[in-house]
From TrEMBL:
Domain Carbohydrate kinase FGGY N-terminal: 103-254
Protein's UniProt name: Xylulose kinase
Reaction equation(s) it catalyzes: D-xylulose + ATP = D-xylulose 5-phosphate + ADP + H(+)
Keyword match Nucleotide-binding: yes
Highest classification ranks of the organism: Eukaryota, Metazoa, Chordata, Craniata, Vertebrata
E.C. number: 2.7.1.17
Family to which the UniProt record says this protein belongs: Belongs to the FGGY kinase family.
InterPro entries in the record: ATPase_NBD, D-XK_euk, FGGY_C, FGGY_N
CDD domains listed in its UniProt record: ASKHA_NBD_FGGY_SpXK-like
Occurrences of domain Carbohydrate kinase FGGY C-terminal (ranges): 263-445
Superkingdom, taxonomy of origin: Eukaryota
GO BP terms, alphabetized: D-xylose metabolic process; xylulose metabolic process
Annotated source species: Gasterosteus aculeatus aculeatus
Length: 494
């Protein structure tokens, strides 16, 4: 086979890999489960949750997720360039990097967020500049917090990477640039000029521009793969490394999302994202630079209580069985006879709320302990999707067709609820792991002459998304009612 494009992609629980050939066929898929296969890191669900309940970190060498940061110590660049092909990477890298990397679930940097917003002239001004008001998980605020609270980790760093550019650095054997798209999740990048914002850099840490290096378009080729990978793993010397990016931008590529399509990812986090031509940032949601076309943008809404919350209710209400969870959805009516729930097991991102809020048909708040298990299952899933829809509509996004991805997109009963709540048909791709596939497509596109082939030309032979479910004819009526009703729970939709 002439060409294999290999890409890795991390999620909170596991590291995944997909390889495609030049005809876009998936020739290999695999993953490493962090908790069970790398028990030495002692993670739970891939992370360490600290005693304050807000700080969430992961061991750097486990290659976790976006919005994480890696602080390289002085001398690390030299280590990277001279990796000994007779040794494992994790042995060689003991000398570089820091111990715990704050990850996207972290919500402990509120003070740093407030300071950044004050420096930028307010939350809306910061959103106008960087695409988002200050968010705790965004890397600039995390860097600020490390500098203030763990000065020993900030002592003379040589470079600061995102987890995406950290992983690219390993393949490159040198520091890899941060791409515009993942760089948009830092509260530091001016999404219009595509350069670091001086105001934000100054408010975050001294010399930060130098420590981050210049950001590059997500389609950039960064250089040849390092000799370590050639000698130890037999990579071809002509293999090139294309800029790595975050999971949501990679998913946009994997779903070949075009203007007008809306993707709903039901994975580690639930996200709603779409391709937009012009940025109109708001106090809610994010605008990122587009990973496929540097002139365009992507809008993103992120919900922290996604799969983990579905898994908790599955464990508590249906004995850990997805079959019984699905049955509960089939056995309960659209609109759940007026029972409604909002489940924020940990501090939610959109909206910033916490706790379980379950309401009976008369709108009285009831305890989850007394709920009938099937009713609770539907209350959770309908509540999650109602919230996704309300927040997307608030930002003016109209949704007529949904492309679903992420782990839960393989469950047709969950997708039926998604379709009913949005009153829109739902499509999926064969591979539910669109972030990984998207990274492979991006790599293929990156290595071709981009003046000759656009991304969409390169992936035009990829399999089309398949229609999985259409909304029930009564869905619009039922959910217009619940929708109006939901607006009553104003505290959950601040
Ligand atoms: C996006 C975000 C999450 C993480 C984890 O801004 O924080 O989607 O990427 O999936």
């Amino acid at each position: 086979m002439k060409l294999i494009i290999l890409c890795t992609c991390t999620s909170r629980m596991k590291l995944k890999v997909v390889a495609i050939d030049e005809n876009l066929n998936v020739v290999h898929q695999n993953n490493v489960q962090f908790d069970s296969e790398l028990p030495e890191y002692r993670t739970n669900g891939g992370v360490h949750i600290h005693a304050d309940g807000l700080t969430v970190t992961s061991p750097v060498l486990m290659w976790v997720k976006q919005h994480g940061s890696v602080f390289w110590r002085r001398g690390a660049s030299e280590t990277l360039q001279n990796l000994d092909p007779d040794q494992d990477l994790h042995q060689l890298l003991q000398v570089s990097g820091s111990t715990g990397s704050p990850v996207w679930m972290d919500s402990s940097s509120t003070r740093q967020c407030e300071d950044l917003q004050a420096a930028a002239g307010g939350a809306m001004r910061l959103a106008e500049l960087t695409g988002s008001r200050a968010y705790e998980r965004f890397t600039g605020n995390q860097i600020s917090k490390v500098r203030q609270t763990r000065p020993e980790d900030f002592l003379n760093p040589e470079r600061i990477s995102l987890v995406s550019s950290f992983a690219a650095s390993l393949f490159l054997g040198g520091y890899a640039a941060i791409d515009f798209s993942d760089g948009s999740g830092m509260n530091l990048l001016d999404i219009r000029s595509k350069d670091w914002s001086e105001i934000c850099l100054d408010a975050t840490a001294p010399q930060l521009g130098r420590l981050l290096g210049a950001p590059v378009p997500s389609t950039s080729v960064l250089g040849p793969v390092s000799s370590y990978f050639v000698q130890r793993y037999g990579f071809s010397e002509s293999c090139r490394v294309v800029a790595f990016t975050g999971d949501n931008p990679a998913s946009l590529a994997g779903m070949r999302l075009q203007q007008g399509d809306v993707a709903v990812s039901l994975g580690t986090s639930d996200t709603v994202f779409l391709w937009i031509q012009q940025p109109s940032p708001a106090l809610e949601g994010h605008v990122f630079c587009n990973p496929l076309d540097w002139r365009a943008f992507m809008a993103l809404l992120c919900f922290k209580n996604g799969s983990l919350t579905r898994e908790r209710i599955r464990n508590e209400s249906t004995g850990g069985s997805w079959e019984l969870f699905s049955l509960a959805l089939r056995d309960t009516p659209l609109g759940n006879n007026g029972h409604m729930g909002f489940y924020f097991d940990s501090m939610e991102i959109t909206p910033p709320a916490v706790g379980v809020h379950l309401f009976d048909p008369d709108d009285n708040k009831v305890s989850s302990d007394r709920a009938v298990p099937q009713v609770e299952v539907r209350a959770l899933v309908e509540g999650q999707f109602l919230s996704r829809r309300l927040h997307a509509e608030r930002l003016g996004y109209s949704i007529s067709k949904i492309l679903a991805t992420g782990g839960a997109s393989s469950n047709k009963d969950i997708l039926q609820v998604l379709s009913d709540v949005f009153n829109a048909p739902v499509y999926t791709l064969d591979v539910s792991n669109s972030a990984c596939l998207g990274s492979a497509y991006r790599a293929l596109h990156g290595t071709m002459s981009q003046s000759v082939a656009s991304f969409f030309d390169v992936v035009k032979k990829a399999p089309e998304a398949q229609l999985v479910v259409t909304p029930h004819p009564a869905a619009q009526q039922v959910h217009t009612h619940t929708h109006t009703h939901t607006h009553g729970h104003a505290q959950l939709l601040p």
